[in-house]
Amino acid sequence: MNLTFEGITFSKFIDEKTWQFNEVKLIQEVKNKSQAFYLKDEDLEKRLITEKSNNQDPWQVCCGHDLVEILSLGLRKAIGTNKTADVEANSLERNLRLAYEVVYFCKTQLYLEIRLWETKNQPFKVLHNDV
Predict the structure, then answer these.
(1) Backbone angles phi, psi at 76, to 5 degrees
(2) pTM exceeds 0.85 for this model
(3) What Rg value do the Cα atoms of the chain yield, rounded?
């Protein structure tokens, strides 16, 4: 079962007023993007329930770009009153990168794993020494 999540339109299954998502509409959007019309909604609903019950860390499952898209929707009506043009995902991503301080990055698992990789693969460097 090859499903495509890239390029899905979040506004098709997330209500911008309540910021709630509709699982049935999510399944339909993923089927449409995947051109997988032969898949049964019931089977995908069961798979979704199974995946949700696996206690996966949602921060590890969801792509950062997707989170920003969802945030953008919320900032329009659910948690803000911004115009769509003022909270476009590209602009939000840029602003979030500017606001992210290196001290926060140094506390992440990603930072530790990069430093470990550098140690094992000398003389290669991914990060500057001042990071």
Answers:
(1) -80, -40
(2) no
(3) 19
